[in-house]
Fold this protein.
Amino acid sequence: MKENQDAETSFGFRKVPAAEKAGLVRGVFDSVAGRYDVMNDLMSGGVHRIWKSTMLDRMASQPGERLIDVAGGTGDIARGFLKRADERRRAGIDEGAHAATRASICDINAEMLYAGIEADGADVDPRLSRVCGDGEKLPFADASADAYSIAFGIRNVTDIDAALREARRVLRPGGRFFCLEFSHPITETLQKMYDAYSFNVIPWLGEHVADDRDAYQYLVESIRKFPAQDAFAAQIKAAGFARVRFENFTGGVAALHMAARL
Ligand code: SAM
């Protein structure tokens, strides 16, 4: 899946020059940033919250750890990571860990970061930082994180292999990798139901709620172009990760890929 800048890549079902994809993706998220969270709830009937909660369970954050959440958008994974670590500390588990838990949200799109800042309002957590940056060239030092996460982000990246290499670079040895992404339903019946829903209802919601039908048409198409569970697992392995595995959510509508940096 490596693509050089002269090559073409997919932007939904369209082929575009690879060098143009990041700008097109930025346009999508600039347009939907203000309605992003409400659209997620509407489109998934709230199910995305359950997927993310399960992801946070698997991440099992510990007090004193540092997370880098790439394509973090408005920041729900990063906030959840800190909250879960605090719960562990309060429960008396890991009482010995006194270093501050930290989370950095890195997103290529400043509008998405601002939408998260607005949502936080006065509830600012000083342990949370927001950085505008590209998942293919992360602005973080080698081996600087205990955990790396990317939720519904990797599909939007132009060179997925480059993003995976960066994930490995910023993780310390023993660090944990988590990628939640829409995937491919595991039964034909579910696939048919999912196609009918996503190609009809989601663009309609995009048009009437976020005032941008094209952005949500892109969402649906980009999901179909993303590799299936096994193929993506092989890509993660090829990037040098160990213990690569995945868990299907809602019959494969989404999948959580997990790995370790040894
Ligand atoms: N992680 C959040 C969530 O689960 O709600 C946001 C997911 S949103 C569908 C995808 C995010 O990926 C957008 O905020 C977008 O700006 C970001 N993004 C796209 N390409 C990126 C890149 N190359 N590097 C970093 N972020 C990127």
